[in-house]
Amino acid sequence: MKSQDFTTSITVEATPQKVFDAINNVRGWWSENIEGPTDQLNAEFSYHYQDVHRCKIKIVEMEPGKRVVWHVLDNYFKFTDDETEWKNTSVIFEITEKEGKTELKFTHEGLIPDYECYQVCHDAWTHYIQDSLQSLIMTGKGKATPKEQPKSPGSSTEQTSDGTTKSIYHRLLIEAPVENVYEAITTQKGLAGWWTPDTSAKAEVGSILRFGFGPDYFKNMEVTDLKPYSLVKWRCIQAFEDWIGTTLTFELEPHQKGTVLLFHHDGWASYTSEFASCSFDWALFFRSLKFLCETGKGFPYPEFNK
What we know:
The chain is of the alpha+beta class. It has 2 domains: 6-139, Alpha-D-Glucose-1,6-Bisphosphate, Chain A, domain 4; 166-295, Alpha-D-Glucose-1,6-Bisphosphate, Chain A, domain 4 (2-Layer Sandwich), CATH 3.30.530.20. 24% of the residues lie in helices and 36% in strands. The protein has 6 helices and 14 strands. A hairpin with an 8-residue loop joins β12 and β13 (247-255). α4 (178-186) packs across α5. The longest helix has 23 residues, at 273-295. The termini are far apart.
């Protein structure tokens, strides 16, 4: 009978020892929100992601260049009926040299389709192994969740309007992990896949994003804030007059089925016809974003309203 445990693998042009070392640099590819040693046999470390996921892990096997095994001692999920899913499961990294390359097989033993968290964990692990860990091995830089910063007392990201300007709001559930949605709203490939193919973008604070909509119209956005997997914020610096100076904020929150996206487009002077048209168009483009993240194919301009 075929095992139902989640598994995925990568093959890289690197030595088994380099792969082994990268695996043990857990803060480099999974999350910077880890406390405790991650590269010592029998060591224990704790992981957390906001108030959504916490777990305690013990390293129970460590064979240099060949194998690493973690045992999940305790676990908490905010979004599952059984908050302890993952508890007493094992995370296994198996390293094999093949024809001058190295294959890494990742298995989360005990993470099976019957788990309520299975799909979101399946997609998240796929991102962290196939993308982040592979990038760490090959380039020395992974895509780990960054260190969380404490919120200022009384702060609320939803309360952005000063009461004298108008805001467009949209909220939707995207059945894909926050890591995938974040990539879709920050990278050139992602933005081109749901907003407009004529996109020039770099995921860096201070960079200028350019979006073309036909030969005679384009929008330029300055990236003013980036918090990987949770927040993206732009300021419009060139577009129709009504848009200039407005801010666009994408907030991402993990959900048991994927990601909740809260979008607000703040700073409109009044309820103009452009405001109304823009609100409707955003709804259509977020349908495109949802399809891109869930199926791999969006409906960017000019197909978004068909």
